[in-house]
Specification:
Layout (H helix, E strand, L loop, with lengths): L1 H19 L5 E4 L6 E4 L4 E6 L5 H16 L3 E6 L4 H13 L4 E4 L7 H10 L4 E4 L9 E5 L1 H16 L6 E7 L5 H14 L5 E8 L4 H14 L5 E4 L2 H13 L9 E6 L2 H8 L5 E4 L2 H16 L13 E4 L2 E4 L3 H9 L2
Parallel strand pairs: 3-4, 3-5, 5-6, 6-7, 7-13, 8-9, 8-10, 10-11, 11-12
Antiparallel strand pairs: 1-2, 12-14
Helix pairs in contact: 1-3, 1-4, 2-10, 3-4, 5-6, 7-8
Amino acid sequence: MRRRLGLLALAVVPFIALAGCASGSDEGTSASGDTEFVKNDPLVIGYSVYDLQNPYWQAWAAGVKAAAQENGATLVTADQKSSQKEQVSGSLDLINQGISALIITPVQPSALPATIDAAHAAQIPVVIGDIGTAGDYDTYVLSNNYNGGEQAAQYLIDQAGSSTDTKKVGVIELHAGSVVGEERVQGFKDALSKDSRFDVVASLSGNDTVDGGYSAAQDMLSANSDLDIIYAANDASAVGAQRALETAGKSIANGFTLVGFDGNDDALGLIENGLMSATIAQDPYGQGTAAVKAALALLNGEDPGFSDPDTKTVFFPVEVVTQETVVDFKAGRANR
């Protein structure tokens, strides 16, 4: 499979190399100075998106589109439909259309290197958005997941106030191997470990789903009937956990604390109705705009503003949304 991907990449390079030399194009050097990128006129940005059936990626795509329009660029989109095969073929097709910059939210980061090599051979910068990375990408844009975990822990500490009571905590992780999930959990545990009042008694995978979150929460509650808190590393698992709480006769109104991560509509609805305590909200729209800004900076030979230059990463901030702030948060999102 890897050899076939390499052949596909080579097949599209000659056409793009010619397009990059067309009249009306500007040349810029990458921030690292390793690759000279070509900014064609008219300016076209390609976005290879994970799955446009998913509201999260719809918001990401909306951010990319808005930023592209604001900067006078045409946007061409390829929907990967949660398929690694579509990720590879769709991305290479975008390269073959003579784009100036490529943004990818990958289904499988391990499939990125051949695409990145083909883009670089055509003097096209590659910005990876969320999920994970591989290969010689130029910028990686994603939420600050570790800090989000820290914020979740700080929310619990703030809620506890001056109480000296010990709280038992359960953690619902994402699927094994999820880099962003590991960061969300590690940030949470690291920050919470500094307060001796909190004791993490269970840490189970929810497989990123409502059903998985339900099962994980049920197992935790069965083994720890006096559990006080559940932190779920995504909102789907938190929604499942809330259903498990109902089954167990526990609720936020009766003192249980349930915190999720994402800022999905389902979780926001539960928070608004007093059935969930908080979520750590991501901003996929904002990440999409940041990805376009990074791509344009690379084309202009400018620094994309790395948060971590060693990994060429731009971290996008996250925020805690509670019952007190959820209405304003939803209103701000709707006004975009």
